[in-house]
Design brief:
By secondary structure, this protein is mainly beta. Helix content is 2%, strand content 44%. The chain is built from 1 helix and 22 strands. It has one helix spanning 84-89; strands at residues 3-12, 21-26, 34-35, 47-48, 52-59, 68-69, 73-77, 93-100, 105-111, 114-118, 125-132, 138-139, 144-145, 155-157, 160-161, 171-172, 176-184, 191-195, 205-212, 226-234, 246-251, 257-263. Strands 2, 4, 9, 15, 16 and 19 form a 6-stranded antiparallel β-sheet that branches. Strands 5, 8, 11, 12, 13 and 17 form a 6-stranded antiparallel β-sheet that branches. A 4-stranded antiparallel β-sheet has the order 20-1-21-22, with no helix packed on it. A hairpin with a 5-residue loop joins strand 11 (125-132) and strand 12 (138-139). 30% of the residues are buried.
């Protein structure tokens, strides 16, 4: 019996870059709050890319848990340091890490819009930073003023574009990227949270980017080759010629992947 539809065969001899995806996402709406409950450290991401290893949000040793934690927020207290340099020395920061699984590469494009809640005596300022491997931390943009709002609706923070930072593009497996948010400027032992309350606009901390699959046939990306064949009537079995190993992907007219097969010169049927 013959199937009548249009399909594309894609013979991929190289690497494949997936579209932009969520690399990691934390959803503080799951935080219960209550006496002493400012969230676990480390705190695992609720969503991660399957080809990456994501280290949980972790509080520096200088971050406290004084008083009663707010519901739907992850954070801590005791950010009463006046400068960025002194806050780093006192470990008044939170961190997380991203690395690729064996054979994969990744690029980090953005930190999406997020929401910060602080108490009236909490930290007024913060600084995003990153480091590659065992290197030094580098500032991402300029110092952030978290905002004056102290209610559960928090303070909306703009997305951060990372696509222009060369260090954060095409990172191979074996290299770990560490992100850090340093907080300072508190007038007392006040609190600071990544906020997921229902009254907040942005309720997650989300990192977006792309992941590159391992080489399927050749290590030299310059030799990457894609061949697309269009057919209108095919039997249940597709036959074709190939000189070496190839990966065949069959798509229907809606662009949906319907079959994937690895073939060689000795086995060229799908």
């Amino acid at each position: 019996m013959k199937k009548i539809f249009t399909l594309l065969l894609s013979f991929t001899l190289g690497t494949m870059i997936f579209g932009q995806t969520t690399l990691a996402q934390w959803t503080p709406v799951t935080m219960l709050g209550g006496d002493g409950d400012f969230g676990p450290s480390p705190w695992s991401a609720s969503t991660t890319d399957a080809n990456l290893t994501i280290g949980g949000l972790t509080k520096g040793s200088g971050v406290g848990n004084t008083g009663t934690g707010a519901a739907n927020g992850w954070g801590g207290t005791d950010f009463n340091i006046t400068t960025l340099a002194n806050a780093i020395t006192a470990n008044k920061f939170v961190t997380f890490t991203i690395s690729a699984n064996t054979g994969y590469k990744f690029s980090i494009n953005s930190i999406e819009k997020y929401n910060i809640r602080r108490s009236s005596s909490g930290p007024t300022k913060g600084q995003w930073q990153y480091k590659i491997g065992n290197g030094s931390f580098v500032n991402i943009g300029s110092e952030i003023t978290w905002g004056s709002g102290t209610s559960n609706s928090g303070n909306e923070q703009a997305a951060i574009d990372l696509s222009g930072i060369t260090d954060l593009q095409n990172i191979s497996s074996g290299t770990t990227v560490t992100f850090r948010i340093v907080n300072y400027g508190a007038s007392g032992t006040g609190s600071w949270y990544i906020n997921g309350h229902q009254n907040a606009i942005s309720k997650t901390l989300t990192i977006k980017g792309t992941v590159t699959a391992p080489s399927l046939a050749v290590s030299d990306v310059a030799k990457t080759k894609n061949i697309f064949l269009k057919n209108t009537i095919v039997d249940n079995t597709l036959s074709f010629q190939t000189k070496g190993n190839a990966t065949v992907r069959v798509y229907n007219t809606n662009g949906q992947l319907v079959k994937t097969a690895n073939v060689s010169a000795q086995n060229a049927n799908v």
